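User: Sequence recovery, please. Input:
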């Protein structure tokens, strides 16, 4: 009767056995991958997780074929800084038909509600906010 143990089936010179060093490498790469994932998560959260300025459309009214009135709410973490928001009018098919920059002056309150009018090139269907920033152009600031 022939012994069919593992050592007889797989000659050691042809098929090396798993050593501790290969298991150690596998664990090392696993830990390295996990650390890289945690680091990436922290960096992305710092960049995108906490918005300095948040904005939302409170309401919009279509006045006529070339005019849209909008109210927007802007919330800043630091209300002592001036800001600028770009609002826009869009037609029913979603294309942009008008755009305007709105100066958001520094205030005591972190949340302010502003109203503005956007002139359009065709009948507006809705109004939205393109974005807000603390990088206010000089031409929007009072002289």
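Assistant: Recovered sequence (143 residues):
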């Amino acid at each position: 009767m022939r012994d069919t143990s593992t050592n007889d089936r797989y000659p050691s010179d042809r098929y090396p056995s798993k050593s501790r060093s290969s298991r150690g490498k596998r664990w090392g790469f696993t830990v390295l991958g996990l650390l890289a994932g945690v680091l990436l998560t922290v960096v992305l959260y710092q960049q995108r997780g906490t918005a300095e300025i948040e904005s939302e459309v409170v309401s919009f009214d279509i006045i006529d074929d070339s005019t849209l009135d909008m109210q927007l709410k802007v919330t800043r973490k630091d209300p002592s800084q001036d800001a600028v928001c770009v609002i826009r009018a869009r037609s029913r098919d979603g294309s942009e038909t008008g755009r305007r920059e709105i100066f958001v002056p520094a205030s005591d309150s972190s949340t302010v509600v502003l109203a503005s009018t956007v002139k359009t090139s065709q009948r507006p269907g809705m109004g939205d906010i393109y974005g807000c920033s603390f990088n206010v152009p000089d031409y929007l600031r009072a002289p």
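Residues 53-140 form a domain with the Immunoglobulin-like fold (CATH 2.60.40).
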